Structure formats: C-alpha cells, structure tokens
Amino acid sequence: MRLVVAALAAVLGATSALAADLPAPVYTKAPAYVDPGYNWTGFYVGGNIGYSWGRSSDTSSLSNGVGTVLFTSGGSSNLDGVVGGGQIGYNWQMQNWVWGLEADIQGTDEKGSRGFTCGVSVCTPPLGGFLALVLPGPAVPVTLNQKIDWFGTVRGRVGVLATPRLLLYVTGGLAYGEVASNGTIGAALTPFSATDTKAGYTVGVGIEGAIGGNWTAKLEYLYVDLGRVSGTFATTIPALGGGTLSSNYSSRITDNVLRVGLNYKFSGPVVAKY
To answer: Which among 81, 97, 170, 212 could disulfide-bond with 109, CB atoms 3.0 to 4.6 Å apart, if both were Cys?
Structure first.
C-alpha cells in the first residue's frame, strides 16, 4: 500500500512540474462588432433654406351700391421668393423602412402683384349735364399685391433606405400660413389691406443622408395649397347704377418649395456587440 501511494505521489509531482513548464493560455475578449449602418430612430431638430415659386390664382370684381357686379377680372400672379426656417421631428426605423412625424415653420419673402382696369363708362357713371357726351365715366384701375408672410406644416413621413445611410421618402399632411393682401382702387389715396391665416395641405418628396456623427442633410420638395383668401373693400368712387364702387377678390394660394436642410439627431449610430 505504501508503494502505491508513493507511486501516485511521484506521478502527480511529475505532472505538476510538466504543467508548470508549459506557457499559460491567453484568454482575449471577442472584439466588438460595429455595424456600418445607421440608426434613424430618435428625435431631431434642424434648419433649412430654399426658394419657393408660389402662385395666386385670383378672381376680382367691382360692384355698385346695390350689389350689381359691373366688371370681373381673372388672372394670376407669381409669389416667388426665399424661404427659411426650422424643423423638429421623430423617426422610427423598422429594418429598411423609416416612419416619422415632422413639423416646420417658415418665414418667406414670397410676393407678387397683378393689375387690371375697368374700362371707360363700365364701372362709373358719366358726368352730368351737357358734359356727359364728352366726359364719360372714367376708367378705374385696380392693383392687388399679395405676400405669403409665413407658413408651416405638420407632416407624416415614410421612406425606404437605399443604403443604411441614405433615405428616400415621401411626405404629406397639414399646411397653414398667413397671406397679406393690399392694393389700390382708382385714385384712392389710402390703399386697402387685409391679412388671412389659412389652412390647407401639403405633399412632397425628399432625400436625406447621414453625413457624419449625428448629422444628416436633406433635399426636399413640397407642394403647398393654402386654399382661398378673399375680401371686400369699399371706396368713395361713384358707381354706375348707384352708390359707390366696392372691390371683391378671391385668390387661391399655392406654393412650390425646394429647400435644403440640416438635422441633428439625438441618438447615436448603431453599435452592436457580440
């Protein structure tokens, strides 16, 4: 028995000595795998600047004191100018699809005007007495100036990722804005003016790409329809048929907006560890 114990002790000792001479194994942690894609989910804020090609499609008329329409003119004017503002939104990424909500507010320099004239003896009565044959009722020129002071939108967005960092999207929703109208009728020294805040709709398309860190840049087109603005203004000009002339206008305001923007997103790129 003593011999067996001694033999086992010798074997164990030799094994321990051999293990001590072998190099110790080195255990390393598996390196983190960084996804080269981009996580679009999260809140973002940003700014934009661009140019807009707006249009006022107007129908105006001149009426006498009893409501008879004496003259009607239809036409349009371009409301073009620079636009700029800011936006805020939230995106949800689901695989290659990105869904989102965005609101923006824009200041604009979009303005334009159109003029028309109610001809001689059409809107005004001739002078009385013997002068009626040689001095008929004078022509009445009218000028209508309009400007989009500001507008905003609240829109949904849905897009597909062409690459992990490049988003193609469509967008649409509510549009609202303020339109200022002013002008002159005849030789009136005081021009008329009015301001309307209207609501309508907008649709558009865009492309947005991650350009580094949490920053993205976009190019976007929007069509905006603010509906109609209208008003009636009285004058002191004598009207054919009695009373004084009044001017009535009804203008449909639309806009085509092309803008570039920069967004900062409050969540980082995707980092997956295995």
So the answer is: 81
* Model pLDDT for residues 5-40, shown as the tens digit of each residue: 343 344 334 434 434 454 544 444 444 434 456 899
Domain 37-265 fold: Porin (2.40.160)
| Domain residue ranges in the chain | 37-265
Residues linked to residue 249 through DSSP beta bridges, in sequence order = 60, 231
Pairwise CA distance, residues 148 & 200, whole Å: 14
CB atoms within 10 A of CB 154: 14
Alpha carbon dihedral 205, 210, 215, 217, in 10-degree steps, equals -30
> What is the Cα 228 distance to its own chain's centre?
19
CA atoms within 13 A on the CB side of 203: 0
In tens, the pLDDT along 131-178 reads: 556 678 889 999 999 999 999 999 999 999 999 999 999 999 999 999
DSSP-based helix, strand, coil % in the chain, nearest 5: 10, 65, 25
Residue type, 120: V
pTM over 0.90? The answer is no
